[in-house]
Structure formats: structure tokens, C-alpha cells
Amino acid sequence: MLSLTRKTDYALVALSFLGHRHETEGGPASARFIADTYHLPLPLLMNILKELSSAGLLTSTRGATGGYRLAKEPAEISVLNVVEAIEGPLRVTLCADENAPAVCNCNILEECPIRKPIRGLHFRIAEFFGKTSLADVIAESAFECCEETNTHQVSVSAANGSGYGEANGSCKVNE
């Protein structure tokens, strides 16, 4: 089955949260705060945030008021950027790769009757991921600002399906 890894799911959750925060509050968020808000394993999230920082998608600031924030505007970060930062180059199959003869050990590579349509599918998926921005993801996410209490209601059913929780009294997490 073609699917993104849990690491990529968590990366998109964290980036969407930081993108929403960028648009509303503007301040950084710590790895612990994000992990607590979405019930994500902190060590795994810290590795993911480090990979996203190395890819130039996040910046980090040390200290008591530090944390992570987007390095670019949400509209400038594509889902493909996130997938490649976490998983490496997107590949539907090994033979879809430009260097297929060198990396694919398929016995029928040269005579394969479906290689061309599979490569076309690969490029359409890559194009779709490349054209879908973090801003698009955020726009369809369930972030609702509650102005009276200055809290944020956040749906996380797609992120981890782990029920309800509250983090530091400022974010309510709902399914």
C-alpha cells in the first residue's frame, strides 16, 4: 500500500501547528509543547524537527523563550518538501527513478510493459505534492481560534487518533 510514514504524518502535524501559530501568534513553540498538545512521542518528534530544520523548513531558537518556527511562509513549503525532508526522494517504485537501471534490480526493467505509465503516475503524484502547500493543508485543518479565551481548538483525529487532551491550558485538542 502506498502511504506516508508516521514520521511524515507527525512532521505535517507539527508544521501545520507552527504555520497556524505563525499566522495567529507568531511566537515559537517548543518540541515538548507540540508533543504534549498532540500526544506525540517527544524523542521521535525532536528527531523530526531536527530533520525539518536541516532541510531549511524550520528555524530553532535556544533558551527559555525559544522553540521552533517556520523558516518560510506556509505557502512556500510544499508537501513534497516535507516528504523529501523526512523520507528522502519520493518514489512510487524504484523503476520510476531517473537512475532506475542503477538502483532497480528488477529483471524486466528494460521490457516492462507498465514502466511508462507507472513513471507517469509517479510524476503526477510528485507534481500534486509539489503544488500542495503547507498553507493549503492549514486552510483545510481544524484550527479554530477562540478569541474570548485565547485558546485554540485543534482536531487531531487524522494526526494520531489518540482522544482528547489539554496542553499547558492554552490548547484544547479535540477529535
UniProtKB/TrEMBL annotation:
Q: Please name the InterPro entries in this protein's record.
A: TR_Rrf2-type_CS, Tscrpt_reg_Rrf2, WH-like_DNA-bd_sf, WH_DNA-bd_sf
List the SUPFAM superfamilies.
Answer: Winged helix' DNA-binding domain
One GO cellular component, as annotated? cytosol
User: In the record, what terms sit under GO molecular function?
Assistant: DNA-binding transcription factor activity
Please give the superkingdom of this protein's source. Answer: Bacteria
Q: Which Pfam family, just one, is annotated for this protein?
A: Rrf2
Q: NCBIfam families of this UniProt entry?
A: rrf2_super (TIGR00738)
**Designated name of the protein:** HTH-type transcriptional regulator CymR
Whose protein is this, by species?
Poriferisphaera corsica
The gene from which this protein is expressed is cymR_2
